[in-house]
Amino acid sequence: xxxxxxxxxxxxxxxxxxxxxxxxxxxxxxxxxxxxxxxxxxxxxxxxxxxxxxxxxxxxxxxxxxxxxxxxxxxxxxxxxxxxxxxxxxxxxxxxxxxxxxxxxxxxxxxxxxxxxxxxxxxxxxxxxxxxxxxxxxxxxxxxxxxxxxxxxxxxxxxxxxxxxxxxxxxxxxxxxxxxxxxxxxxxxxxxxxxxxxxxxxxxxxxxxxxxxxxxxxxxxxxxxxxxxxxxxxxxxxxxxxxxxxxxxxxxxxxxxxxxxxxxxxxxxxxxxxxxxxxxxxxxxxxxxxxxxxxxxxxxxxxxxxxxxxxxxxxxxxxxxxxxxxxxxxxxxxxxxxxxxxxxxxxxxxxxxxxxxxxxxxxxxxxxxxxxxxxxxxxxxxxxxxxxxxxxxxxxxxxxxxxxxxxxxxxxxxxxxxxxxxxxxxxxxxxxxxxxxxxxxxxxxxxxxxxxxxxx
Length: 456
Prior knowledge:
The protein is an alpha/beta fold. Among the domains are: 192-326 and 344-364, 2-enoyl-CoA Hydratase, Chain A, domain 1 (Alpha-Beta Complex), CATH 3.90.226.10; 381-427. It contains 12 helices and 23 strands. The strands form 5 sheets. A 7-stranded mixed beta sheet has the order 22-19-18-15-14-13-23, sandwiched between helices. Strands 1, 4, 16, 17, 20 and 21 form a 6-stranded antiparallel beta sheet that branches. Strand 14 (205-210), helix 6 and strand 15 (233-237) form a beta-alpha-beta unit. The protein is globular, with a radius of gyration of 26 Å. Residues 1-6, 11-31 and 400-422 have low confidence and may be disordered.
């Protein structure tokens, strides 16, 4: 008997170390197919049984009915869309492990995009990220096996393996002259889903990076905000976040919105037509927010950023998101197997869809660096002009020099005494200027704080 699980996936991405979970790509809507008549159904079942019998009797290698049915189910689900899947015992177990935030492998999320196996995002701190895998990389080969014509399941099985074993991915990267070979050492992946930091020179601004939407996100978010109770503004970084659990995405938005429909889903049956609404208690509707997104932000990340954008609760900064807006539910078959089936599509508060469209930021900022204020030597200053007030400036500069020496020494000593743990909780000025999206996001947040002054 097949029962629907309450575990609803708000993601279309797959970790290379689990089977058939979080599959990315674009599920295109097809023209409605008329219902089969009773006669047509019977004829189809008979045809399937006949073919099954022929294979069992005539195929070159000996097979059994259970094995053939499982293969048929996998092919059936794959041909529905790239998000639906049949999960055997091991794959179903891997799914449950991953949603708890710990699993083995590379720590990479991939999806099928225009028929190519594409990296959606490497997860923070994992072997894939450390090896240099980037969002948007197209995987040509897994070790020596080409991925052309390969299914997601097949790719996942090849990329999984024992911890401390090596794998080589051959990838095509935008602007790279030739394919890159990247060696990655497999490991046990333990995901920390939420990282909270402050800025070196803006201690009252809270930066929160959510790597994926596992079952601990809302709890960790609330804890981070409580620990920084003097926060005047929040940067929520959802870049390269491949998605995760729907209830965590809804819960995160609910922290900042006190009324209205956060996200709705519409499917073929009335049971799948569901609205997830905001609640009023313990809601922060005043603290200014900026959300960072990019092409690696998918599904649950798009629900959060799109909803906050529709409610006019946050400014969205970065690049257009991935565009995955379909709903998968896990339907256990007995105790050890399951189907992951696409049953509906998501719609944002305004009624717009995410599917194949993504979320367009309010302010588009491409990844890159921003020249530091100290790198502006090409600009002329007053002191560079002839006949400036040299004598007076010399007096001022002499006094300023004495003061600045003391300040510089103090600053150097202070930075040198920061422990590794402290550095992990602070974003330095240098780091800020190396991340154009974050730097502009911070500047926008400062403007929001200024314009918010005096409001009741």
